[in-house]
Each structure stands twice: as structure tokens, then as C-alpha cells.
Amino acid sequence: MKKLMIITSILLLTIIASAQTDFSGKWKLNKEKSTMNSEFSMAPVELVIVQKGNDLSIERVSNFQGQSMTTKENYTLDGKECVNSGMMDSQKKSVAKFSDDKKVLTIDSKLPMQDNEIAIKEVLSISGGNLYVESSSNSSFGEMKEKWAFDKQ
């Protein structure tokens, strides 16, 4: 009986240790904890993330020139390419993949724009109860890097 309890405990700890981070929740931008560009930021003011099994959806609420805009993207967490609507009827192609320790999620995207392409990388992690997103983009317009912090609502 004692051996069975020890084996069960070890198995349970292994399962818990290998569990991936769940980013689900409603998250509000914390500007004080964020590092954003002073002139132009791509930071959404709110994220609503739903993560179930292999599926992840991110709804982003952004403000641009006084107007609120909501976009929703769906991903699979198996490293396969996902296609979402982009700007001006384009298709944004993305791959979402967890780190080996299952704590950090990286979403690499490519968005066609006129005769060019924008490469976007978002790295999501949770620390101290906050969601952090390190966002970088690279195109012929240059490179942009920001780190956004979100408080769970």
C-alpha cells in the first residue's frame, strides 16, 4: 500500500510539473509596468484569452485615434500554422508554440503588407500574477519592440 501511495504521488507531481501555463482570463493593460514606445504603441488595452486543450483564442481591444477596435485570433498550440484575418483583407499566418518547460508561449506571425511582409513575434509569460507580452515586429518600416504588462480582471 505504501509503495502504491509513493508511486501515485510521484506520478501526480510529474503531471503537475509538466502542465502548461494557462493564459485564460480577461487582462487589462498596466501602463506603469509596461515598456512602450512613446510615439506609437501597438499595445492593446485589454486581452481576453480562452485556452482549452490545444486551442487558444485571443481577443484584443485596442484604441487608435480615439476609436476602439476589437480583433480576435485563433491558434492551435501544437506548432502548426494557423491563419487569421489580417489588415485590408490579408491573411496573417501564425505558429504558436510552448517552450520546453511549458511556461512560455511564443507566437510567430507573418503579415503581408503591399509588396512587403511584417514579421511579428509575441512571447507570453505569467509572473507575479501579471501577464507579460514581449512584442517585436520587423519590416521595411523598421523594428519595433515593446513589453506589455497586464493585470488579471
Q: Extract low-pLDDT stretches.
A: 11-17
Oligomer: single chain
Average pLDDT over all residues: 88
CATH topology: Lipocalin
Tell me which CATH architecture applies here. Beta Barrel
Radius of gyration from CA coordinates: 18 Å
How many helices in DSSP terms? 1
Quick take:
The protein has 153 residues and is mainly β.
Outline the fold blueprint.
Elements: H1 2-18, E1 25-29, E2 46-52, E3 55-64, E4 67-76, E5 81-85, E6 91-98, E7 105-113, E8 116-127, E9 130-139, E10 142-152
Antiparallel strand pairs: 1-2, 1-10, 2-3, 3-4, 5-6, 6-7, 7-8, 8-9, 9-10
Provide keyphrases for this structure.
single chain, Lipocalin, 10 strands, mainly beta
Question: What would your notes on this structure say?
Answer:
The chain has 153 residues and is mostly beta strands. It has a single domain, classed as Lipocalin, CATH 2.40.128.20. It has one helix at 2-18; strands at 25-29, 46-52, 55-64, 67-76, 81-85, 91-98, 105-113, 116-127, 130-139, 142-152. It has a 10-stranded antiparallel beta sheet with strand order 4-3-2-1-10-9-8-7-6-5, with no helix packed on it. Strand 3 (55-64) and strand 4 (67-76) form a beta hairpin. The radius of gyration is 18 Å and the shape is globular. The N and C termini lie far apart (45 Å). Mean pLDDT is 88; it is low at 11-17.
